[in-house]
Amino acid sequence: MSEFIQLIEERRSASNFLPDVPITKIELNEIFDLVKLGPSAFNLQHTNYVTVLDPEVKERLQEAAYGQHKVLSASAVIIVLGDKKAFEQASDIYEGLKMLGMVNKQEYDHMVNDTVSFYESRGQGFQRDEAIRNASLSAMLFMLAAKEKGWDTCPMIGFDPKGVKEVLHLSDHYEVAMMITIGKEKVESRKPRGYRKPVSEFVTYI
Predict the structure, then answer these.
(1) Sequential DSSP letters for 73-110
(2) Tens digits of residue pLDDT in 49-65
(3) What is the pTM of this model?
(4) How far apart are CA 32 and CA 142, in angstroms?
């Protein structure tokens, strides 16, 4: 457990990456193999990742990110997407439980109907919020898993979502929750950690 505490303490948002440091699909998949174990509402696994390694696509994403240099110098740019229509895949996701005999046909139908009706009844605003909530949970796990594997990351909201969608030809049912740059940080450029509020200022006990 002390290793986990150390991981949290050492994870920082990297703003200055060493250029020309490649990251392989094998290395990225090792991270994503951990990320897939994260929680999601109703186990709908709302989060999708577009991982950009192509330098030309990174240049176009840099434009959508208002010219931020770290988009170009990072080893990869990760676009974190929340699927607003993830609930429509409930039948496929729960199918495995039925096949393994963990639920019977009646229980399976009940699970699917309950999940779909829950999302449909709450409307598009809720579906969008759920996409962002669940994608954000997954994104934090991605950054911790990346740090465990020796990579530095930076979560970013400074970009034009519409521009990102145009660059990547994304469907409208995806919400761009955030952009994450990943690479090896220039350690000498790291600044001291910013001020953190004491627990008493952000925790209330009732």
Answers:
(1) HSSEEEEEEEETTGGGGHHHHHHHHHHTTSS-HHHHHH
(2) 999 999 999 999 999 99
(3) 0.95
(4) 7
- Contacts by residues 7-12 (CB-CB < 8 Å, ≥ 24 positions apart): 7/144, 7/147, 7/148, 8/144, 10/147, 11/143, 11/144, 11/147, 11/153, 12/152, 12/185, 12/190, 12/193
180 CB neighbour count, 10 Å cutoff: 22
**Residues 66/158, Cβ–Cβ less than 8 Å:** yes
pLDDT digit string, tens, across residues 135-193: 999 999 999 999 999 999 999 999 999 999 999 999 999 999 999 999 999 987 788 88
Strand partners, 182: 76, 153
As to burial, measured by CB atoms within 10 angstroms (0-12 exposed, 13-18 middle, 19+ buried), residue 88 is middle
